[in-house]
Amino acid sequence: MNNKIDCRYAIGKKEANAYNTNELREAFLAESLMTPGKVVWIYTHYERFMLGSAVPTTTPLTLETIEDQLKMPFFTARREVGVINIGGPGTVEVAGVSYDLGNEEALYIGKGNDNVVFSSKDANNPAKYYLNSAPAHHSYPCKKIGELEANVLNLGSQSTSNERDIKQLIINSVVDTCQLQMGLTRLKNGSVWNTMPAHQHDRRNEVYFYFDLGDDKRVCHFMGEPHETRHLFVANEQAVISPPWSIHCGVGTGSYAFIWGMAGENLDYDDMDKFPPSALR
Description:
- Pfam families: KduI.
- This is 4-deoxy-L-threo-5-hexosulose-uronate ketol-isomerase.
- One of its GO terms (molecular function) is 4-deoxy-L-threo-5-hexosulose-uronate ketol-isomerase activity.
- Its EC number is 5.3.1.17.
- By secondary structure, the protein is mainly beta.
- It has a single domain (3-279), classed as Jelly Rolls, CATH 2.60.120.10.
- It contains three helices and 23 strands.
- The strands form five sheets. Strands 1-3-4-11-6-9-12 form a seven-stranded mixed beta sheet, with no helix packed on it. Strands 2-20-17-22-15-14-13 form a seven-stranded antiparallel beta sheet. A four-stranded antiparallel beta sheet has the order 5-10-7-8, with no helix packed on it.
- Strand 13 (151-155) and strand 14 (164-170) form a beta hairpin.
- The termini are far apart.
């Protein structure tokens, strides 16, 4: 068994307002992803969304079902999965078909595709697969999304310290999905704010996975209600679970990138409620 599993129950905004720092971190921060030789999963009760990782080294890793949470014969029996590689070159095999994934390339795995295997080309420079999964009602074809297939948005400006490229990888204008959406945002040199204005998605949840952050650097991730914000200091290759009632934005002490993943009511990327800095407390 290569799986490590953690479960996070849904927490309301009133309860979260009373949490201290450790309680907030235990509820919303994923600190132990990208474990060599393991498939790691966190099962959340926000939209039944799952986030995880697979880091194969000398031996390939199989995507196994999780008995207590899924109660299904195989992982994708009723789920779709998104994969983004942030490490060295690797291969993901799905139902006998192999997909080579380079750095920052993605793969969508549709419902019903059994026998998913993750491997690395070089154990000394392993692939590091970041994983998201959501329940699926329909089976769509698997699809690799490389640099040329991604839809790229250039947002922000140097003057507001949030100039960034948003690489939309697994969204409905690029690949057919049931509800899962994923992409990668990279800040330009000198920019540190990742999302401004801050916003929330009342109709879906979102998870931010931060990476390419120096060991001595941190991202201060803001969450909570607009009038009652909280913050978490996040290290490299850690993720923050953002409930539908919570805003999300962050500022770093150095350069970094992050992967965003969403699931919920609809596939409208722009379905968000924005709050300018003047509205935050």
